[in-house]
Amino acid sequence: MVDRDKRVYVYFNLHKKCWSVRQSGKIVDHTNQVLLRDCRYLVGQAGRKKVLKEKRKNVHAGVSGYLVDHVTNVPEYSSELTYNPYKHKTFVSKDEPYEPVEHSDYAFLECGKGWRILEAIWK
Q: Where are the chain's structural domains?
């Protein structure tokens, strides 16, 4: 059971092709859609270095936040984000000039067959 008063960590599961939701060190859900508030975009640099060295993917990047059902207030701005350990050290805006993003008020994560979206939302 997910405790909505505690942070979760969400990352893309390469094997199941969906978002994995971890809380207190345990996987609590696998989903194709998740909405978070008070978001932090985290990249473990040791894991990134391992990817660069071994040329093999591992879980070292994700979004931390609180699960919510909807965005309160009307968003002022949103931006689709991406992370590629071979190109960037952090999550970045998908549009040039690829500005680093460390936090946002909300994040909407969605995936389907062969695609995934990570949208940062500021209110």
A: 8-117
With contact defined as beta carbons under 8 Å apart, do 66 and 37 qualify? yes
CA distances from 15 to 19, 24, 30 (A): 10, 22, 11
What is the arrangement of strands in the sheet containing 77-82, beginning at the earlier edge strand? 26-31, 18-23, 8-13, 61-67, 33-43, 103-112, 115-122, 77-82, 92-93
Q: Residue 100 gets which letter from DSSP?
A: B
pTM of the complete model? 0.93
pLDDT of residue 74: 79
3-class SS of residue 70: coil
Give residue 67's pLDDT.
97
Residues 90 and 40: their CA atoms lie apart, in Å, by 11
